[in-house]
Amino acid sequence: MKKQIVLAALSTTLMLSACSDDSTGENSREEQEQETQEQYSEEAGKADSIHQTVSDVIREGHTYFSEYLQHDNHKNENILETLEQFIPDTKEAAEQAENLALKEDLEDIHRLLINFQKRLHDKGESLNEREKRTRMISLLHRYSDLDYYARGNDASQPYYVTQYSLAQLDRGMHKTAVQEDIKRLPENVQHFIQHNYGHDKNAFIERNDFREALIEAYEQKGELQARDYQYIVNRMIEEGDTKAEVLRVFVEERM
Length: 255
Hints:
This is Lipoprotein. Residues 19-49 are annotated as: Disordered. The chain is built from 13 helices and no strands. It has 255 residues and is an all-alpha fold. The protein is elongated.
């Protein structure tokens, strides 16, 4: 978890630093991505109450791959037996899903399961452990996303690799309180938060104290640079410090 956040934090710093550069050449691509994401976001609420088949498939997939990845030397016959069950169940779940993004994510999982099954059949015991784990991790991240956002399992760890998780983030950004707070931040930070998908964006949506820390730091300093934003992200999201602790040290060390 911590390693993942650290890597995400590094990516955040690089991306935020680039926000101040001229991005005219990227406008067309960003607009296309935004249009697609808005389509998903408009439908996000449709999966607030998901079909039982969808819920069961997500729960079972998340549980299986989480537990299996804790062990090494996976036997092909055991994996194949599970895939033979998961493949038709996932196809049925995709057919039952009413939400467009959720349906496409389940179809994506279904495709990955079939590809995994084919590789096991084709390569047999020569399929190395590294490839098995890589494929399992890819599936686990998708199940984990959907378990958190579609099933509402707060114990799950989202990775933001599914269309549904990104749609839920965009939906959250339209909350009145979130919109009011983001307008109180400088444009460079606004732009980054709007176009970023990850734990810091989720924290901005879900945590009033995180939004308040950013706003108060900006008001006290008169600006908020990439390193300032990343400092607050690291302290509050990675280290778990309180808003008061972060702002106290921010004033002492960064002003």
